[in-house]
Amino acid sequence: DQSDARTTIPRADLDPNVQLILAGLPEQELSYQEIYEKVIPSIVSIQAYSDTTAFSGTGVLMTSDGYLITNHHVIAGCSSAQVVLYNGRRYDAKLVGSDAHSDLAVLKIKAEGLTPAEFGDSDLLRVGDAALAIGNPLGSELFGTMTEGIVSAINRDVNVSGYTMSLVQTTAALNPGNSGGALINSAGQVVGITNLKMMSSY
Fold first, then answer.
1. Would you please indicate which residues are annotated as catalytic (active-site) residues?
2. Which residue among 124, 132, 164, 201 has its CA within the 20 to 30 Å range from the CA of 154?
3. In what order do the strands lie in the sheet with 145-160?
4. What is the b/e burial string over 24-37, where b = at least 16 CB atoms within 10 angstroms of the residue's CB?
5. Strands (E), 27-144
6. Helix, coil or strand: residue 139
7. Is the entire prediction scored with pTM above 0.85?
8. 199 Cβ contact partners less than 8 Å away, ≥ 6 residues apart
9. If 0-12 CB within 10 Å is exposed, 13-18 middle and 19+ buried, where does residue 111 land?
């Protein structure tokens, strides 16, 4: 746990029985409509607050009882966070842990009967595979936006804020607010968490 000391979101314990199990290579492809219907119940909107600023991002449900994954930078330096499900229900979130090096964080909401995403193995991705992104570009007003593209590179080393991350690169359109959302393969499996948009001016 490499949480920023300025991040004071109330803490939650990690259930030792929580595991993120990766599914194998998909046997069949789904249509884009089928992928969206499969994944959208697992996508959430995250609103995190510091003393002076509100931040918006996306998250992906990991378990039916409210563990979810997002980006570290979505919640870094914040004192509270709320999660909004695709059906509009809103929950206060607690922080289980976060890591600035991988830019990942796990939050917990008190809920039951949720629809966790199916996670696939990103090591099985190949350049040219279909890649879809579902998230909330530019904030919760555009909740559940899906964009399509391909895997344009794998194991792309990128230096961000002094950390080198090995990333999957995609042509799927992304914008601020997509952070923490899902990158999805042709079987509707989450194979990545969106964390960075690079532009020519960067």
1. 73, 103, 179
2. 201
3. 22-23, 119-120, 190-193, 182-184, 130-135, 145-160, 163-170
4. eeeeeebeeeebbe
5. 43-49, 54-61, 67-70, 80-84, 90-99, 104-109, 119-120, 130-135
6. coil
7. yes
8. none
9. middle
Residue appearing with tokens 């899902």: 182
What one-letter code names the amino acid at 11?
R
Kindly state the tokens that stand for 198.
């690079």
Q: Could you tell me if 165 and 155 are in contact, meaning their C-beta atoms sit under 8 angstroms apart?
A: no
pLDDT in tens, the chain (202 residues): 555 657 889 899 878 888 888 888 777 899 999 999 999 999 999 999 998 889 999 999 999 999 999 999 999 999 999 999 999 999 999 999 999 888 999 999 999 999 999 999 999 999 999 999 999 987 777 889 999 999 999 998 888 777 788 899 999 999 888 999 999 999 999 999 999 877 655 4
How many Cβ atoms sit within 10 Å of the Cβ of residue 64? 12
Pairing of strands 22-23, 119-120: parallel
Label the pairing between strands 90-99 and 80-84: antiparallel
Give, for 170, the enclosing helix (H) or strand (E).
Answer: strand 163-170
Contacts for 103 with CB less than 8 Å, ≥ 6 apart = 71, 72, 73, 160, 163, 165, 195, 196
